[in-house]
Amino acid sequence: MTSASVPLGTTNKLTRSFVCLLGVGAIVWGLFVLPLFWQEASPRSVATKLLYDDDSFRLQSLFDEAQQAEKSAQHSFCVPTALHSLFVLRLFILNRAFAESNQSLVESSYDSPLDAARNALNCTPADSFIWLTLFWLDAGKYGVNARNANYLRLSYAWGPNEGWIALWRVRLALLLFERLPPDLSNRAVDDFINLVNTGALYLQTAGIFKNASPAAQNRIVEQFGAVKLVKRQLFAATLRDEGVDADIPGVVKPARPWNSD
After folding, report:
1. pLDDT, tens digit, for every residue of 147-185?
2. 3-class SS of residue 235
3. Could you give the dihedral angle defined by the CA atoms of residues 182, 179, 170 and 92, in that order, rounded to the nearest 10 degrees?
4. Host domain of residue 106
5. Is residue 12 assigned to a domain?
6. Structural domain contains residue 200
């Protein structure tokens, strides 16, 4: 019994049809997707610069870019880059309002990043940075509660070792240290110790320690045995440069000139 073969002419026609469909698909993609890509480009660029500490943008520019990102996000149910850019821009507009003590702008801008955060998480639920910011925004408005504490847990779950997120997360968690559930306050101390252990963030961690409550400082000091001695010494030296005289285990404080014989 022989199997039926497809005539060569038919195969060629199918191949040509498939290639034509690919070409049409590419044209359609170019007509509909490329304009959206270019529309997203500017807000995405500004949002990236904001996250890397470029705060040189005028407030009106941030509003304009946010409006552009919002238009891009509306073209589809889920455009992760546009939604993320919109969230970052709305967040930094609020941050600028806080920095300028502009109460009316704070009130009018507070809900926008909350809405943008929820929309972005509906599209990309594994975004640790947005979960962290949602915790900050919600706790700032309603105080630390079971709902927003879970936002912080989700930030840890989705991004436990992302350096720049961990740095902001531990700063925020230590500022709210006494109000956090035990699992999160413990996690904040562990994160701080891990950051010191990187051996690259002494200035940042010293600043965080300086602004932490005495209770948080004491808990951190209790865990310093997990930090290598040389790193403890460098951290203690950075603290002294910041005007903080803390007792770090295993680190001998330098003699003060007025105490010398």
Report:
1. 999 999 999 999 888 878 898 899 999 999 999 999 999
2. helix
3. 140
4. 32-120
5. no
6. no
